[in-house]
What we know:
Blueprint: E1 10-13, E2 16-19, E3 54-56, E4 70-73, E5 80-87, E6 91-92, E7 95-99, E8 105-110, E9 119-128, E10 131-140, E11 163-164, E12 174-175, E13 178-182, E14 190-196, E15 205-207, E16 213-216, E17 224-233, E18 236-245, E19 253-259, E20 265-269, E21 282-284, E22 289-300, E23 311-322, E24 328-333, E25 361-366, E26 372-376, E27 381-385, E28 392-397, E29 404-405, E30 415-419, E31 425-429, E32 441-448, E33 453-460, E34 473-476, E35 482-485, E36 491-495, E37 501-506, E38 512-519, E39 530-535, E40 540-545, E41 554-560, E42 566-573, E43 578-583, E44 589-595, E45 601-604, E46 608-609
Parallel strand pairs: 29-33
Antiparallel strand pairs: 1-2, 3-4, 4-8, 5-6, 5-9, 7-8, 9-10, 11-12, 13-37, 14-15, 14-38, 15-16, 17-18, 18-19, 19-20, 21-22, 22-23, 23-24, 25-26, 26-27, 27-28, 30-31, 31-32, 32-33, 34-35, 35-36, 36-37, 39-40, 40-43, 41-42, 41-44, 44-45, 44-46
Amino acid sequence: MAVASAGTLALASFGGQYVLAHRTNRVSASKPGIPRCVPTKLNGSALLTGTTLTVSPLPGSYDASPRTQISLLGAAPSAISGITVSGTQTGEHDGHLKAYSQGDGASFLPSTPFAPGETVTVTGTQQRAGVPAHFTFQFTVSFSDELPYSAPSAKPKANPGEVVSFHSQPGVLAPAISVVDSSGQQAAGYIFAAPYSGPSADGPIIFDDTGNLVWFHPMPSGTEAANLQVQSYEGKPVLSWWQGYIPPQGFGEGEEIVADSSYRTLLRIHAGNGYRADLHDFHLSGDHTALLTVFNPVRCSLAPVGGTPHGAVTDGVFQEIDVKTGLVRREWHSVDHVGLSQSLASGKSSSDAWPFDYFHINTIERRRDGSFLISARNTSALYFIDPASGQISLQIGGTHSDVELGAGSSTAYQHDAQELPNGEISIFDNGGVPMVHSQSRGIVIAVDPNHKTDTLIEQYEHPQPLKAASQGNLQLLGNGDYFLGWGAEPYFSEFTPAGAMVFDARLPGLTESYRGYRFQWSAAPAYRPAIAVAAASSGVDVYASWNGATNVARWRVLGGAGPQQLSPLAEAARGGFETTIALSSRPAYVAVEALDAAGRVLSTSRAVRG
């Protein structure tokens, strides 16, 4: 993803806002001479010899955060003991073990941070069938590369019809959605996106197949949102999205929000080890774990790739978080496993302010067999990751592909690789930039690890050739259709399995959305409906809306001499996000009731003067 940024990291909640003054809590240090970030041997194992423990930081690595915990995954917490942690500069560290809520490991939490550049030695014991297995491993702490803050750029001026506004919700200045094609054959559900860079407010949005707004959560200036989707948490459908600060370098520093079907915040999930959650991917699992991405700029010699020995590189990281405790169960770093020379980007002109973004992780997904699937934009490759060792077991594409790429199956700067129920993989293939393919597309491939082949199964292209320089996704729907969010191109499209386009909509102007999805969703907001009243030539017009409600069929207007003296005056069918009901009289007070299809009252607005 490559996006323009805005503002300090202001984190919004439904009931208000708060501002986090510092967008990073990394430990900084004086600029080192020639720091190292790449291990002596790439793709080493995180599984400690003689134990069942998968650990992070990775033994032999040079990229650990100064604020890292020591993650020990793969044994009952009671079987782990005798942990000692000592740094070559900071000495022995006090701390304590804290168990994962899943019961399969624990993290040692040091009382104080480590020093950048020091080597840390960890020792301990795992009891295996009553027999102690002693272990020792080492890692080296990285030097962080602090990026300069970039203030938000001014919003472009809106052309007529590009922004929609509402009498009853004056704070909702949403992008106007144009439906280009709607065949009526598309799958059921709403469209989920998070527009930014356009003339409207930025924020997560839900709209229907006619382009009508369903829900919009505008972000304050300086805060962006991305990756709005429906997931499951504790057996119930929830909304999730990322929000935070996006530097010009094209990644996120923020948090993951999870909200219930009344739009109340259930969870605020943060990256661990002193990092901030990146916007590119986020998955909740049924065992109270979450997968998220992190972009971590660190000081590193780029001499091996023709850059400065005093350079910096952006390390692609994923973490598995224990949602109940906030602990990091596992952490994986691209610089430990993928060489800098495999990048299709150049490190020659990198600087402190623009570190070498050699990998650019944009997908992390757990596969059916427990392994992980990663997509990296700047290597044009997918990777299968072994869950125990953390090692790359198979690379698909890029400069060191382990499989033979069949005709049409090669990707370029791709996004959003997802394993499908039948084992095939769907991908949004950007095709550039620089452009390798004539246009962006969605594809489905079949990978045969045994015969080392990669075959193109399906391909979906927009009839108006689109070239999405960044972002984008491909989603398999329940009816077999595929839904595409075109990322840097302001379109959302749905195709049948045979490739016929059955739905197409676009955002205004140069507005973008990192991803776009179709989901079924039912919601009743915890807050009341909104109402506004305006004088008309005879009587008044009453405006009614309920941001996010999905089950309103009709509106009833109540009126009377006082707020507690209201009786029904008129009804009207719901007419989009905001419904206008004309009254021939002008009561002293009015309110509106939201009614479902059976005529039941769902909620009532406050009473306002007529």
